[in-house]
């Protein structure tokens, strides 16, 4: 491409077949792109006109009434046609002044042939030129693609890709990223770089979505715009490649160049993240020390994590576990490891995008996470919690949509202000995952402080105390249900859910009120007490929750 311009009305006027033509109106529109040429003599032209079409006509439509003539021109203008060529002498001898004025107002070129001309010569000439140009464009794109491929195979240097794009597009190239350094080819002044970065962060980044096709055009000012193409990895936009345009409209060639570059950039981003993951394997040792509680001091722990020591304020530390469940039992170990690694790289990129300091370690199918953020306001913890929830949700959606027979489970312990106490946070994260997997109503819980009474139940030694507690308080009901199938446990559960309302309990169970009364009498008889007794009710509720949890885990 190397700066080749788009075929325009100005180029059309330079063709030999237009030697005897003149531009009657729309001189400011001579830079309109011409994509195709065809003849139209009908009045209802909208269905047959595409953007960038150059229309040839003998002006038969000009013999109609004034309103119909104007409507013809307005249809062409609305359809964003390239322009209109009118042959005089066959149907008309001049173009009405109001039509020329309408074209002039919209910078719509009107070309006039004052003598008859063979339209077939025009279409053959222009079409041959357009086809040849398109062929050259495809050849250029193939060369461009090969050069990008060579650069991606040669190194992980993003600047090399951007230089290739700059050479072909002959325009300022920018690369804006939320996970690495912004780049400009050629380089620009620091103040301009800062302005573009602010513009991208405030105006562009929120519009970049992975499922959006094609490029986005944003105006820096009246004369300068940037054509952006998002760089998509794992279905997430991490960066964007852009071309700076000065008083010009984007072309198909620019869009294709950006599309090819964005795909090559995505390859480099992924490879860089994988290489970074290998370089950061020494983080495993630090997480292992956290898990085993072998951190000698808080100051040393924060230094090893790469945190600056704060003279004022403190950090928030959040530890968690993301578990990759492979439901395909026939999947090879290599495939499982590959999926685990993809999840790890995606997680690292998402946390990096959110500017969270983090340590990650993949062990088997479990990824250990330790995040840190300065507590700047009272809402910092809530904001951090929201970021973690959003990150997990994205990974779960990615697994559901892109990975076959893979489920993602996650849990986070309580937020802590000292890194030396986060070993307990990892234990709490395990408990969250166990509760979410075993108790249906808790399946969407992510954080330790959201599992409520199960904090206590998970802390109780399982054998023999928890089973004995269940047996002491519910043993009679369990045995009776097993022998007589009266569903006393389900009745008790529904009764507690309804806060003791017999009408609501009967509604939940879809049974007659008298049947419920009989069951409640039987329950009171077996437990040798009264459900109205607060102490008895609390014991039964705890025992019922423990029973359901143990039953699901078994």
Describe this structure in words.
50% of the residues lie in helices and 16% in strands. It has helices at residues 9-13, 66-78, 97-105, 119-154, 158-169, 190-204, 252-279, 283-291, 298-305, 333-353, 380-402, 422-438, 454-459, 462-484, 488-497, 502-509, 513-527, 534-553, and strands at 21-25, 36-39, 53-57, 83-87, 110-113, 173-177, 183-185, 216-219, 224-233, 236-246, 315-326, 357-363, 366-374, 406-412. Helix 2 (66-78) links the parallel strand 3 and strand 4. The protein starts with 8 loop residues before the first helix and ends with a helix. The model has no long low-confidence stretch (mean pLDDT 84).
What's the SSE blueprint?
Elements: H1 9-13, E1 21-25, E2 36-39, E3 53-57, H2 66-78, E4 83-87, H3 97-105, E5 110-113, H4 119-154, H5 158-169, E6 173-177, E7 183-185, H6 190-204, E8 216-219, E9 224-233, E10 236-246, H7 252-279, H8 283-291, H9 298-305, E11 315-326, H10 333-353, E12 357-363, E13 366-374, H11 380-402, E14 406-412, H12 422-438, H13 454-459, H14 462-484, H15 488-497, H16 502-509, H17 513-527, H18 534-553
Parallel strand pairs: 2-3, 3-4, 4-5
Antiparallel strand pairs: 1-5, 6-7, 6-10, 8-9, 9-10, 11-13, 11-14, 12-13
Helix pairs in contact: 2-3, 4-5, 4-7, 5-7, 7-10, 10-11, 12-18, 14-18, 15-16, 16-17
């Amino acid at each position: 491409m190397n700066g080749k311009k788009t075929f325009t009305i100005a180029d059309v006027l330079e063709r030999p077949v237009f030697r005897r033509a003149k531009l009657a109106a729309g001189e400011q529109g001579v830079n309109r792109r011409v994509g195709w040429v065809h003849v139209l003599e009908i009045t209802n032209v909208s269905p047959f006109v595409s953007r960038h079409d150059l229309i040839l006509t003998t002006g038969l439509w000009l013999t109609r009434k004034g309103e119909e003539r104007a409507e013809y021109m307005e249809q062409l203008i609305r359809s964003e046609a390239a322009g209109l060529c009118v042959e005089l002498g066959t149907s008309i001898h001049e173009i009405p002044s109001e039509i020329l004025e309408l074209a002039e107002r919209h910078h719509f070129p009107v070309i006039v042939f004052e003598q008859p001309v063979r339209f077939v010569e025009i279409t053959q000439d222009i079409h041959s030129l357009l086809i040849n140009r398109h062929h050259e464009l495809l050849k250029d794109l193939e060369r461009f693609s090969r050069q990008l491929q060579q650069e991606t195979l040669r190194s992980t240097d993003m600047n090399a890709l951007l230089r290739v794009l700059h050479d072909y597009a002959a325009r300022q190239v920018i690369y804006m990223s939320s996970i690495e350094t912004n780049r400009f080819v050629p380089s620009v002044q620091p103040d301009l770089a800062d302005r573009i970065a602010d513009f991208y962060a405030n105006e562009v980044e929120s519009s970049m979505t992975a499922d959006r096709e094609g490029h986005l055009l944003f105006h820096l000012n009246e004369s300068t715009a940037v054509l952006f193409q998002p760089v998509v990895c794992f279905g997430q936009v991490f960066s964007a490649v852009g071309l700076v345009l000065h008083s010009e409209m984007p072309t198909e060639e620019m869009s294709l160049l950006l599309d090819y570059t964005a795909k090559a950039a995505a390859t480099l981003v992924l490879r860089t993240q994988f290489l970074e993951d290998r370089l950061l394997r020494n983080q495993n040792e630090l997480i292992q020390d956290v898990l085993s509680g072998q951190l000698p001091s808080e100051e040393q722990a924060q230094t090893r994590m790469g945190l600056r020591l704060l003279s004022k304020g403190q950090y928030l530390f959040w530890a968690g576990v993301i578990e990759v469940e492979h439901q395909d039992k026939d999947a090879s170990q290599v495939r499982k490891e590959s999926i685990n690694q993809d999840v790890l790289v995606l997680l690292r990129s998402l946390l990096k995008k959110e500017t969270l300091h983090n340590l990650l370690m993949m062990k088997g199918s479990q990824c250990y996470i330790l995040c840190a953020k300065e507590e700047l306001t009272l809402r910092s913890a809530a904001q951090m919690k929201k970021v973690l929830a959003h990150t997990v949700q994205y990974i779960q959606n990615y697994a559901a949509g892109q990975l076959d027979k893979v489920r993602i489970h996650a849990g986070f312990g309580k937020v802590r202000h000292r890194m030396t106490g986060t070993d307990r946070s990892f234990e709490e994260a395990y408990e969250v995952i166990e509760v979410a997997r075993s108790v249906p109503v808790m399946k969407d819980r992510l954080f330790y402080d959201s599992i409520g009474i199960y904090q206590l139940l998970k802390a109780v030694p399982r054998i023999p105390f928890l089973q004995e507690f269940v047996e002491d308080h519910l043993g009679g009901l369990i045995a009776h249900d097993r022998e007589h199938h009266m569903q006393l446990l389900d009745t008790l559960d529904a009764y507690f859910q309804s806060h003791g309302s017999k009408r609501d309990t009967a509604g939940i169970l879809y049974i007659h009120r008298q049947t419920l009364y009989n069951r409640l009498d039987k329950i009171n008889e077996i437990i040798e007490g009264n459900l109205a007794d607060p102490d008895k009710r609390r014991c039964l509720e705890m025992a019922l929750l423990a029973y359901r949890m143990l039953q699901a885990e078994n």
